[in-house]
Amino acid sequence: MLPPSFDLDVLFTFVSVVENGSFTRAAKRIGRSQPTVSQQIKRLEDNLGRRIFERDTTEVRLTPHGEILLTYAQQILKLSHDARLHLTEADVAGVVRIGTPEDFATTHLSAILSRFARAHPLVALEVYCDFTVNLLDGFSKGQYDLMLFKREPQGFRGGTEVWREVLDWTASPNVILPENKPIPLVLAPVPDVYRKRALAALDAEQRPWRIAYTSPSLAGLQAAVQAGLGITVLPTEMIPAGLVSITSKLSLPKLADTEIALYRAPGALSQAAELLASSIIETLGNAALKQP
After folding, report:
1. Which of 116, 115, 161 shows the shortest CA–CA distance to 287?
2. Rounded to 10 degrees, what is the CA torsion of 136, 138, 139, 144?
3. Angle subtended at Cα 89 by Cα 162 and Cα 5, rounded to the nearest 5 degrees
4. What's the predicted TM-score (pTM) here?
């Protein structure tokens, strides 16, 4: 007799617990109660006849059987998502307008949009990249069906959190900062969120600074930093080849995280827009669980 098949919902909870390091944090992340998460994990262990977690008062750790299950669970969840994306509503059509920060569009969003376009070839995607404040203004005027924007974690309410950005001070590996002089900064213009983070962190520690280079272009900022004009702020995972983190090396202040949230336009969205919104939330939400 074959053992019971895997419940995708339970596997999702299992992966969430692993990536969040605790039942409580996982429950908060996926919007369930802690007892529900515990019950799902117990049911999974009972069905397998194996313990998958070692528990103590501070954290949960995978057992050897749990390590094996994690690999399969991640693959099963990915296959489930891809199958549903390719096999449901394949004939949906229309136009979806989405606003997003440039850096996010060129990294995390590009693969999602490419996969969505292949699954729904009759949908036309219009992607607009801009600063968050300009995206919010355009969204209020009805210019976008969906909008990804950066906000303060746990601050502004509404929308759906899909990603948390850990920020880092970044520079050329050969950069030499002059002693006893203001730190040269390479930043986007006001009202960029990273600019706000950088200046607030330095001011809080009374570290003198000066703006050495300003550009609204991510590529322009990175080129200036590679040329040694100063240091900048980037998400840790988006530091490109040729640049390095210098936070520890120069004893620079820790930068507060930013949060990426998805907003839907008021009223009824088109079927195409709803499908894309679901794909973004599920894909980025699962990827966020894997962040340290």
Report:
1. 161
2. -130
3. 70
4. 0.61
